[in-house]
Sequence to fold (270 residues):
Amino acid sequence: LTKKRRRRLSESYAETLWDPEKREFLGRTGDSWLKISVFYVIFYAFLCGIFVATILVLLMTLNMYKPKYQDRILPSGLSFSPYAHNLEIIYKTDDPSSYEVYVKNLKEFIEQYNDEKQTDDMKYEDCGTTPKLYTERGELESNTGQRKSCRFSRRELQGCSGENDTTFGFKEGKPCLIVKLNRIINFRPKPPSSNDGLIGEIKYFGFAGNAGFPLQYFPYYGKMLHPNYLQPLVGIKFTNLTKNRELRIKCKETILKTRMVPMKIPLRNV
Fold:
């Protein structure tokens, strides 16, 4: 481009930004910029107001103590430790590295049940040494402060506590699973009429030597009122597994007759 052509382009760009004759900036006068700015300020303020009002109305319909809808999750499901990808536990007894991840997961999980972490009498209380009925701690929606939680010692799990056997039975080919009921606010499980039907060659360790979940640990009042709640546990120890064979376990109902989410746990090369 010639110098004259470049100069004209430069002047054109400059006029686009600021036209001194029409007194326009980017093609608009000061009044035009003021009007459009006021319009968009009001427009976006209106949108923000609608959004905030919608959130406030939604919050007014919610209960701060429990979910609004939980009828589809009753009764409680069951979960277990250690965590296993695809619900498959596969390891070799002569290779510690193959079960190290399971042992580590169990240790991390069971630490919250150490006695020294439940010494605060403002948060925890003893709920007896034998199974009892539910522990009622007031109305669910009453603002009476946080509820205390029943202490649950890992020692109740005996052979699956990890205290004497730090590998939770994996080293000797008799692995442990630790199961618990999922938390559901105000859920009260029902006791069974009998304990028949347990699978043979399996040891169960639970509260006061019982293979079940004691009722005095229920109901659960939610994170706001029950922040230190500890679910009761049951240890399951497989004492007679056949090596190099897949064992599938499908849970249908708990000892307290609550429906459980079906799970399959293949144990191979144990």
Summary: Confidence is low (pLDDT under 50) at residues 254-267. Residues 3-61 form one domain. The beta strands are 18-19, 24-25, 78-81, 89-90, 124-125, 149-150, 176-181, 202-205, 234-238, 267-268. Helices lie at 3-17, 30-61, 96-110, 222-225.
